[in-house]
Amino acid sequence: MRYIKAVLVGLGLAQLATLITTVYLHRTLSHKSIRLHPATTMFMRVGTWMLTSISPREWVAVHRKHHNFSDEEGDPHSPHIEGYWKIMLANVYYYRREASQDDTLEKYAADLPHDRLDRALFKRGTLGFSLTGVILALVMGFKPGMVALTTLASVYLTLNAAINGAGHTFGYKSFANDATNLKLLALITFGEGLHNNHHARPASPKLSAFDDEYDPAWPVIRLMEKLRLAKVLTKAEEGWEDHRRRLPERAVLNPLKGISIADANAADANAARKSA
Ligand SMILES: [Zn+2]
Ligand SMILES: [Zn+2]
What we know:
The structure is a single chain. Helix 3 (about 55-70) crosses helix 6. This protein is mainly α. It has helices at about 1-30, 40-50, 55-70, 80, 85-100, 100-110, 115-120, 125-140, 140-165, 185-190, 195-200, 215-225, 260-275; strands spanning about 35, 170-175, 230, 250. About 60% of the residues lie in helices and about 5% in strands. Bound molecules: zinc ion (ZN) (2 copies). One zinc ion binds near residues 26, 30, 31, 67 and 202.
């Protein structure tokens, strides 16, 4: 029973880490579609540090470069270039490889210099994650605490890999870009699984585009707005139709054949883009 509870705690923390990633690292910092109240920002910074050990400056730089070169040479983590399983199993390696490049950080995250708090504390990502481990061990006991911590890390990393790998390989497309939409993945990644929509309108604060899609982070963001903890800066509902371009209505990729179909679709999408 203690271990079941530990796994549930780990899953809950992984969901919280995923929510912080999409709202703060992704929609707020990378694409500037939301502005956060200073108190919310501090909560997000501490959460990022303690649950993911990610440096926001690095995450934003790698992510913006991914948008700049999506599935072309220069994309830090493309399953079309590296191979699907390499991204699914070693996403963190590709992330680290890019995040360690000073010129990437300077070019893509010049607007996010480290402040005093970063230099003193948040830059030390391992310390934040270790602190979470210590707290979990003190509250739950050493072994269940480590089970919760391991669950948090493995689930969080797997979900991120799935967005970058499966989210550029399987699923349906509503827009002419190389990413794909996976509704099930969206439900467990606070909307990030609607990755084809996201690549069509990166600055949209909401990742669902049509009525049959659901972005679980959106009601959270709206609630934060009501509580004055956040402000949405860009349009959420309008503009999707303009991005549909000339892609056949809801092209569906075959999960059994995967990437070859994805490539065929990407070729179609490129052709559509050129003739548009
Ligand atoms: Zn992508
Ligand atoms: Zn993005």
